[in-house]
Amino acid sequence: GAVVSQHPSRVICKSGTSVKIECRSLDFQATTMFWYRQFPKKSLMLMATSNEGSKATYEQGVEKDKFLINHASLTLSTLTVTSAHPEDSSFYICSASLPKGQSYEQYFGPGTRLTVT
Amino acid sequence: KQEVTQIPAALSVPEGENLVLNCSFTDSAIYNLQWFRQDPGKGLTSLLLIQSSQREQTSGRLNASLDKSSGRSTLYIAASQPGDSATYLCAASFGNEKLTFGTGTRLTIIP
Questions:
Q1: Rounded to an integer, what distance in angstroms lies between the CA atom of residue A33 and that of residue A35?
Q2: Which chain A residues are closer than 8 Å to B98 by Cβ?
Q3: For B104, which of A43, A101, A105 is closest by C-beta distance?
Q4: Which pLDDT does position A19 carry in this prediction?
């Protein structure tokens, strides 16, 4: 149980185009999902918290108009990188939060490798 | 500022040895701590979750401990195998669902 999928796994796009990445919780409902990006040999950087039915909460320094997040259902959150540029090339990973005891446990998707040419 | 640190950044160990990975955090008001494994180019696999009321968790050859007073967590791997080679990340939650990640330890098990 607790499987999170991402689609696509890899995407190459031209500079100036927009790319949508999907994150799905396959066997559970997630009111909260998270979006991270990871640069080579670096740790994960939280970009935003995606809340079902409400606006996403962005971390400091992350442009909300650049990285559009939509969490339209309890099993799907999408991240759209708008007008992508080469510096947006990165590994994007989502996670979904599941209550466990008095805490939460996060389950991660397999990631999406974005390359902007 | 709440920070999570992992030292060393890389570790090589001969196959069969037991090993310990370290994680330290700056805020003792920790909600929970999670250990993950990441293979190159892949997502994260959750290994163990320790809630603030717990001191340790075990799963197979893995044992994770949590000491809030000293701001430390350790991941103990027994009888290491080449398949254990990966980057290990610890992440702490400080009062909400958000995770703060450490920088990771890249583990190599030498056959």
A1: 7
A2: 34, 46, 49
A3: A43
A4: 97
Residue B22 neighbours by CB distance under 10 Å:
16
Beta strand residue intervals within B15-55, DSSP E: 19-25, 32-38, 44-51
> At residue A103, does pLDDT exceed 90?
no
Whether B107 and B21 have beta carbons less than 8 Å apart is answered as: yes
Cβ neighbours for B106, distance < 8 A, ≥ 6 positions apart: B9, B10, B11, B86, B87
pLDDT (0 to 100) of residue A1:
67
Closest residue in chain B to residue A9, using alpha carbons only: B42
pLDDT in tens, A36-89: 999 888 889 999 999 888 889 999 999 999 999 998 888 999 999 999 999 999
DSSP one-letter string for B47-106: EEEEETT-SEEEETTEEEEEETTTTEEEEEE-S--GGG-EEEEEEEESSSS--EE---EE
Is B46's CB within 8 Å of A105's CB?
Answer: yes
Indicate whether B64 pLDDT > 90: yes
pLDDT digits (tens, 9 = 90+) for B14-37: 999 999 999 999 987 888 999 999
Instruction: Write down the residue that tokens 């994007």 correspond to.
Output: A92
DSSP state of A75: T
